[in-house]
Amino acid sequence: MRLSQYFLPTLKETPAEAQVVSHRLMLRAGMIRQASAGIYNWLPLGYAVLKNIERIVREEQDRVGSQEVLMPTIQSADLWRQSGRYEDYGKEMLRIRDRHDREMLYGPTHEEQITEIFKHGAKSYRDVPQNLYQIQWKFRDEIRPRFGVMRGREFLMKDGYSFDIDYESAMRAYRLMFVTYLRTFARMGLQAIPVEAETGPIGGSTSHEFCVLADTGETEIYCPDDLLKFDVLGSVQNSVEDYGQIFDYVTSQYCRTDDRHEPEEFDRMVPAEKQVQRRGIEVGHIFYFGTKYSEPLDATISTRDGETVPVHMGSYGIGVSRVVGAIIEAFHDDSGIVWPEPVAPFTVGLINVKPSDESCTQAAEDLERRLQEAGVSVLHDDTPESAGAKFAQMDLIGLPWQVIVGPKGVKSGHVELKHRATGERQDVSPDSVVGKLA
Ligand code: ATP
Ligand code: MG
Ligand code: MG
Ligand code: MG
């Protein structure tokens, strides 16, 4: 992509309305533009990141056999009356009437809708286990939308749902999804900490929130240092068969939010020098809730013995659009964003320092073509801006690698390769740039 043709409305000034660094940088880097309070347009650079996050989410869901569906954003109020949540949900739910005066709503989540789908498609123990997910926009009329896409009113969520014959089987689904979430976030460069969120009537923890540590987080987290260092992708073989072992290790650690924190228990389980107390951003949340929806919505299946039982369910959410902000909270410096490579909108920012110089332009275009042929995504700054402005803008948008093509280097047959995260620079030949980045 040539920058001269790319729609990238970056801002020089810091927008006054943005309170947190991720919101400021997303506006400044031309990733999003507010449409109305808590509702955002995703511009090319922002949407490229969002799609990368979606891709990782999909790959990890597919890996454990979850199947993608797409449910409507607009749902019928009747369905929500059956579960009792139409009244309970309160003002966060956006309620709509259609032209026939039918009550509808913009889905804040989809448990009712998926239960309804499952109920008409599954009859017996042979039809389970089943796991379905979607990536779909939600609307919650948040009382205080803030921090940009991190607490929007309209936001993109991956929401998945599991269906099982009994508690044991449902917990297997839960464990798989728990580790899937750890892997999903790790692949985005994030160390997500799973904190116990709720203890169900059956005992044991039946809900975990996945939090990314950042000072701007809204929850206080207590956990051992070991969890911050735990490398899920590098642990054991990491085939789906190993997920149970990873689950057991991680959930044996003390890891709680302030509302469930017990200082004595923390001291007992974690030596003082390993205790961590930090703020966290909730990027995912998983629940086992048993028959909470299947009973009122009458989603039953027959067992092997011919008995009719309500299906056991779990739900699993990732705030896909919130994750974009959370990644920036975790990865930025004074000059701008520093994207982890797997989610970066482009891998390389190629800067032609002097487009008026023919040999420079030739070298830059040549390198762009070669990188593209090698499958490396490139944003090529071919604009007539000053070198200083180009460097500042490239730092701001945070592409992992910069390749700087200038007249002096071209003469002696080399370009400059800069690593955005470390700031390390080296003079290298165009050949070795392609070799290194491909
Ligand atoms: P929060 O505590 O931040 O209000 P929640 O507990 O209400 O979130 P869940 O119902 O657990 O949210 O939804 C699953 C995920 O959706 C959350 O973990 C979060 O990542 C994301 N999410 C929830 N609300 C928002 C929002 N207003 N804007 C962006 N993402 C959101
Ligand atoms: Mg909420
Ligand atoms: Mg929450
Ligand atoms: Mg939650």
From TrEMBL:
Major place of residence: cytoplasm
Compartment list: Cytoplasm
KW Nucleotide-binding (keyword) present: yes
InterPro entries: aa-tRNA-synt_IIb, aa-tRNA-synth_II, aa-tRNA-synth_II/BPL/LPL, Anticodon-bd, Anticodon-bd_dom_sf, Pro-tRNA-ligase_IIa, Pro-tRNA-synth_IIa_bac-type, Pro-tRNA_synthetase
A Pfam family the protein falls into: HGTP_anticodon
One GO MF term attached to the UniProt entry: ATP binding
Record's GO cellular component terms: cytosol
This enzyme's EC code(s): 6.1.1.15
Domain Aminoacyl-transfer RNA synthetases class-II family profile: 33-340
Keywords from the named record: Aminoacyl-tRNA synthetase, ATP-binding, Cytoplasm, Ligase, Nucleotide-binding, Protein biosynthesis
Catalysed reactions, semicolon-separated: tRNA(Pro) + L-proline + ATP = L-prolyl-tRNA(Pro) + AMP + diphosphate
Function, in words: Catalyzes the attachment of proline to tRNA(Pro) in a two-step reaction: proline is first activated by ATP to form Pro-AMP and then transferred to the acceptor end of tRNA(Pro).
Protein name as annotated: Proline--tRNA ligase
